[in-house]
Design brief:
The protein is an alpha+beta fold. It has a single domain, classed as Phosphatase 2c, domain 1, CATH 3.60.40. Helix content is 28%, strand content 27%. The protein has seven helices and twelve strands. The strands form two sheets. It has a seven-stranded antiparallel beta sheet. It is globular and about 55 Å long.
Length: 289
């Protein structure tokens, strides 16, 4: 793994600003046995919070598991909830291949751990929504996608002309066919981690071709970027870092005042020497003994 811009993620802003803060950005490459995953991220504190209540994976040290968590603004200690959630998931799932059961168990355990931690400080509830993805084979061609609440994962398919589609479906009151509480909105998340409002995390799988993109983001991004804007921005020339920054900037230009976080991931082709080595390995394996 090589670090291109080793900036420390997770720092929070301590004072309220009239305008959204400049996004924190970073970009790294994870080298796998049979390929590479290039990734970049941008996270910006909105103008309505004194601190960034989003949290995300440390790209330099946390891969190839990629998590974005959004602290629920109406709950207590939203920043604590989102950061604890990201930390817990990496501790439980990082460093080994994971499956559906692993992820669901880790999210349930995080729900209890966050609730217990917040209870040490206040009797008010606190929670976070989350989305994550991770490759589940050595080629990074098959990915596990999981989420609770309204963080999202998108897939940008090069073979399909750069078309962008959501791989997740928000756990909102409207989508779940439930009535929001008094004063709530049908678009509010009905499932969260940290307050007992998650019974079973959503899990699906996606096939990712070489050079395809995956995008993991909070609602401060996706609620303010139309489907055609995703495709247009990602089609522009530039690095993954520039794409991440452009997505935050577009959300701001479209009126987002919420905390905004996006991770942009790309499955990259095998390096030349590894391709030759793999072909030789396959050839030798097929040679009659």
């Amino acid at each position: 793994m090589s670090i291109i811009t080793p900036l420390d993620p997770g720092s929070s802003h301590t004072s309220r600003s009239a305008a959204p803060a400049v996004p924190e950005v970073r970009e790294v490459i994870h080298t796998l046995l049979f390929g590479r995953i290039a990734c970049a991220g941008a996270s910006s504190c909105g103008s309505v919070h004194a601190a960034n209540e989003d949290a995300h994976s440390d790209l330099a040290r946390g891969g190839p598991l990629f998590v974005v968590a959004d602290g629920v603004g109406g709950g207590a200690m939203a920043s604590l909830a989102s950061r604890r959630l990201v930390s817990h998931l990496h501790a439980a799932l990082g460093g080994h291949r994971i499956d559906e059961g692993d992820v669901r168990a880790a999210i349930q355990a995080a729900d209890r751990a966050i609730a217990e931690r917040i209870a040490e400080v206040t009797q008010q509830p606190g929670a976070a929504t989350v989305a994550l993805c991770a490759p589940v084979n050595a080629f990074a061609s098959r990915w596990l996608i999981a989420w609770v609440g309204d963080c999202r994962v998108y897939h940008c398919s090069i073979a399909d002309g750069g078309a962008v589609r959501a791989l997740t479906r928000d756990d909102t009151f409207e989508h779940l066919g439930e009535e929001p509480p008094p004063g709530g909105s049908p678009d509010d998340p009905a499932r969260m981690v940290g307050n007992g409002a998650v019974a079973r995390a959503n899990v699906t799988f996606a096939e990712v071709e070489q050079c395809d993109l995956l995008l993991v983001c909070s609602d401060g991004i996706h609620k303010f970027i139309a489907p055609k804007e995703w495709q247009r921005l990602l089609a522009l020339p530039g690095t993954l870092l520039q794409h991440a920054e452009a997505l935050v900037a577009q959300a701001r230009a479209n009126g987002s005042t919420d905390d905004a976080t996006v991770l942009v991931l790309r499955r990259e082709p095998l390096a030349g020497h590894r391709t030759q080595w793999l072909r030789g390995l396959v050839h030798n394996d097929r040679t009659p003994r």
